[in-house]
């Protein structure tokens, strides 16, 4: 297998699955993935196309062009029947990985691991820098016959670059809303009063005796025991004690819950099996 690392500067991310891996349409292990869109004449497109051609020729030789016609990772958005937002007129590549890729903020020293931040920085339509590994593959049947060959991309890392209008949604800002500050102030007389707060656990409530009253309070656990020399308090027998002494008649026991007498318990006859 031939492979090479490629840097894709200033591409737009689409359909990212970076918080949780996404199951494949044809089964297989769930994977993290993202699609990157780029103009055909961009630096990212030139670097990517050069890497794909290099890997294909190194892996498949004279068959490289034929293999790429069938299974190239670089695709044209215009070739899709119903191109999603951002795809028309652009090239795109989808890269996948079994483990979460390295995610960085605009400051590359800051790694992004929090799910909420991941969703904020890597929303479809935003600008990112990405690292992918372009590699060749060859799938064989049990007999050893080659059934599929091609070039694919593994997702290595993504860096947030800039916000932009999200794909498939409408972006709103403060300027889109009217200022209703005066209306809110004029209607303040109808603002409901806040509900009284319940006293915190252990707090003193008016009319209630303090918990730490010096006189009349219940003795604390461990205090109020009989003084030395006084008669000990009668204790209930512990579980397992208080059994009849040897030779005395055993106490009658209630039948266990769910117990049903066997036929020989009823008539004194054994039951044949």
Characterization of the model:
The two termini are 71 Å apart. It is built from five helices and seven strands, in the order ββααβββαββαα. The chain is of the alpha+beta class and 273 residues long. Mean pLDDT is 80; it is low at 213-217 and 246-273. It is elongated and about 80 Å long. Strand 1 (3-22) and strand 2 (31-38) form a beta hairpin. A seven-stranded mixed β-sheet has the order 3-4-2-1-6-7-5.
Key phrases:
273 residues; alpha+beta; seven-stranded mixed beta sheet; 7 strands; disordered C terminus
Layout of helices and strands:
Layout: E1 3-22, E2 31-38, H1 43-60, H2 64-70, E3 75-76, E4 91-97, E5 102-104, H3 115-121, E6 127-140, E7 146-162, H4 181-186, H5 263-267
Parallel strand pairs: 5-7
Antiparallel strand pairs: 1-2, 1-6, 2-4, 3-4, 6-7
Helix pairs in contact: 1-2
CATH topology of one domain: OB fold (Dihydrolipoamide Acetyltransferase, E2P)
User: What's the β-strand tally?
Assistant: 7
- Count of helical segments? 5
Report Rg: 38 Å
CATH architecture of one domain: Beta Barrel
Q: Estimate the global geometry from the Cα principal axes.
A: elongated
Could you name the CATH class of one domain? Mainly Beta
Q: Topology as H/E string?
A: EEHHEEEHEEHH
Alpha-beta content class: alpha+beta
Q: What is the CA-CA span between the terminal residues?
A: 71 Å
- The CATH superfamily of one domain turns out to be Nucleic acid-binding proteins
Strand content: 25-35%
Helix content: 10-25%
């Amino acid at each position: 297998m031939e492979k090479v690392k490629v840097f894709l500067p200033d591409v737009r991310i689409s359909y990212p699955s970076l918080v949780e891996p996404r199951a494949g349409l044809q089964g297989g292990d769930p994977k993290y993935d993202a699609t990157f869109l780029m103009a055909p004449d961009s630096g990212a497109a030139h670097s990517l196309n050069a890497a794909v051609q290099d890997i294909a020729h190194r892996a498949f030789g004279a068959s490289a062009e034929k293999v790429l016609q069938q299974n190239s990772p670089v695709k044209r958005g215009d070739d899709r029947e119903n191109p999603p937002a951002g795809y028309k007129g652009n090239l795109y590549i989808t890269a996948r990985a079994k483990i979460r890729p390295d995610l960085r903020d605009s400051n590359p020293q800051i790694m992004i691991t929090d799910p909420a931040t991941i969703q904020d920085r890597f929303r479809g339509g935003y600008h990112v820098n990405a690292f992918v590994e372009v590699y060749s593959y060859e799938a064989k049947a049990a007999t050893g016959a080659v059934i599929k060959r091609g070039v694919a991309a593994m997702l290595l890392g993504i860096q947030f670059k800039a916000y932009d209008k999200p794909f498939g949604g409408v972006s709103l800002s403060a300027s889109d809303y009217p200022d209703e500050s005066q209306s809110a102030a004029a209607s303040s007389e109808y603002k409901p009063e806040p509900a009284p707060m319940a006293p915190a656990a252990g707090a003193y409530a008016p009319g209630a005796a303090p918990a730490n009253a010096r006189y009349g309070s219940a003795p604390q656990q461990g205090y109020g025991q009989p003084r030395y020399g006084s008669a000990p308090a009668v204790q209930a027998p512990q579980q397992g004690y208080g059994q009849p002494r040897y030779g005395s008649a055993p106490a009658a026991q209630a039948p266990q819950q769910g117990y049903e007498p066997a036929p020989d318990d009823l008539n004194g006859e054994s039951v044949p099996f």
